[in-house]
Design brief:
Shape: rod-shaped
Strand content: under 5%
Order of helices and strands: HHH
Distance between the termini: 101 Å
């Protein structure tokens, strides 16, 4: 009789121990997933990566446009002349330049 009670208590303690370990693991997993480094942080990082990738693509396009413009300026004398005249505000003999003022803004 004592043997069966002792054996059933050992089984009960083993079940309690396994249950406690399982509950501890579940609690630890919940805290890790919901904490500052959990799922919400992962989603925030993914969103940040996506926005940085989009910004990188935009900058790559701008860089390609600027390189194309530099190539045009290097290889096209007419383009060079226009750019120089625009930057230095130069006119050819006989040309006239008109400066227009903006109309006043009414309130």
């Amino acid at each position: 009789m004592l043997e069966s009670v002792s054996k059933s208590m050992q089984v009960s303690f083993a079940k309690i121990g396994y249950t406690a370990i399982l509950l501890g693991g579940v609690a630890y997993g919940y805290v890790q997933l919901s904490g500052p480094n959990g799922v919400s942080a992962l989603l925030d990082k993914r969103q940040e990566i996506h926005s940085l990738e989009q910004e990188n693509e935009k900058l790559q396009r701008e860089l390609a446009e600027k390189r194309s413009r530099i190539d045009r300026l290097k290889n096209n004398p007419d383009e060079q002349e226009l750019e120089i005249r625009k930057e230095l505000k130069l006119l050819k003999p006989g040309e006239k330049s008109y400066i227009m003022q903006d109309a006043p803004v009414e309130k």
